[in-house]
Amino acid sequence: MTEMKTKPDIRFAEFTDAWEQRKLGDLGRVLTGNTPPTAEKENWSAGKDGYVWITPTDINTLLMSDSERHLTTIGWEKARIVSAYSVLITSIASIGKNAVNTVPVAFNQQINAIIPEGNDAYFILSAMEQNISRFAGLAGQTATAIINKTEFEKFVLSVPMIQEQQQIGAFFAALDRIITLHQREYDKIVNIKKAMFEKMFPKDGADRPEIRFAGFTDAWQQRKLGDVVEFNPKAVLPDVFEYVDLESVAGTGLIGHRTEMRESAPSRAQRLAKRGDVFYQTVRPYQKNNYLFNLPCDDYVFSTGYAQMRPRVDSYFLMSSIQEERFVKTVLDRCTGTSYPAINANDLAEIEIQLPCDKAEQQKIGTMFKSLDRLITLHQRELIKLQNIKKSLLGKMFV
Known about the structure:
Blueprint: E1 20-23, H1 24-27, E2 28-32, E3 51-54, E4 63-64, E5 69-71, H2 73-78, E6 81-82, E7 87-90, E8 98-101, E9 105-107, E10 111-116, H3 121-130, H4 132-136, H5 149-154, E11 156-159, H6 162-200, E12 221-224, H7 225-228, E13 229-231, E14 240-244, E15 249-250, E16 253-254, E17 258-261, E18 269-272, E19 278-281, E20 291-292, E21 300-303, E22 306-311, H8 315-323, H9 325-334, H10 345-349, E23 352-355, H11 359-397
């Protein structure tokens, strides 16, 4: 019989005692939220004035201080309230969206809260993050996942003395702040890129963008994609190659590949890349995981889950065009399937894009978006690295 583990693999040097198993209900006072009657307008603030009232959709960070809707003093008196530095744990539907509130809040019935008593809030939050799959398993196979208050209070965590809890909680709070900073920087650059798309590509019905590089004044032209690129060019695969599947591209960055032998490779490994080729994700294209191949290599082969486009226009301009929101919407309108919407190369070739007649303008636009994509990819990689570090540490610093 396997002996129950009582100590984590990694811990702060001054601590050696075994951890104890404790129920959530023993770590503090547990409350289930409620909703003051929505039909009674006197309960709800018209704007951002008033008291914070949190639902699972508000939880987008591990430290919460605001919400979409606010309560008036009348509504606050009818609500379920917890003090600052309680732990909010979603227990219905979107299980796993958890947070610590940094101000007093009210919360709805999809959330259970723990007001810690002699325990550290951020430790509990991090411990729940480590145990989220086990916690979600309590919900069973019902149409709407739900963990009632009784089952919630019985859920068991391994817990050390308060001094060790505080050090672990402070450590993960600091790590989460770093992750949040990188996330905000990533989001900021993504929003800049979105704004530049809106200004540097013509709006519907227009033939010129609002913002242009100096020296360019001619109208843009509309062309079918099939007229400006060659789709899925035929090629003989190398005996050994680097295979890129649909999970290997995130955003516009290549995050992985694996070595395959031609005789044993997956049947989807068919698109031999040439420098300058653009690979468009044809399955769930709303994810916009598209890649411009610019490596000095001739042994990368992409999955048939990508449409391979060999441009007759500037590659980086084309890459920018296919990421533009209106293009993505047009693609989605022509997709088949619901869970996994997809488009084939023939239908993709019929979609029109707008482009400058002057290739120099194409190149300038493409270069600018290339720089933004590089910044986005750098922050995305840093985020993934930090999230993987955190995942590993959660596994080693908790029992």
